[in-house]
From TrEMBL:
InterPro entries membership: Lambda_DNA-bd_dom_sf
Domain of life: Bacteria
Protein name, UniProt field: Cro/Cl family transcriptional regulator
Gene3D superfamilies: lambda repressor-like DNA-binding domains (1.10.260.40)
Length: 73
């Protein structure tokens, strides 16, 4: 990915070959608490609402640098 390029949360998930359910399960394991598929869906629709900790979680499970993911609407 060229430097400075940002992709959406959905694109990051798709590129990681994960479903929303897969992402929810991976984040549940990452945080040690239940994360629902619906929450993943909402964050993909409204990325500006993603808390910083979740941003780091998404970057970790999708194996991307956090600055490669677009967290604005």
């Amino acid at each position: 990915m060229p430097k400075g390029t940002k992709i959406s949360l959905k694109a990051a998930r798709t590129n990681a070959n994960m479903t929303q359910e897969d992402a929810a399960n991976a984040l549940s394991e990452y945080f040690g608490m239940k994360i629902s598929r619906q929450r993943i869906m909402e964050y993909e629709k409204h990325p500006a609402t993603v808390p910083p900790g979740f941003g780091h979680g998404f970057a970790t499970i999708y194996r991307l640098p956090i600055d490669a993911i677009n967290f604005s609407n």
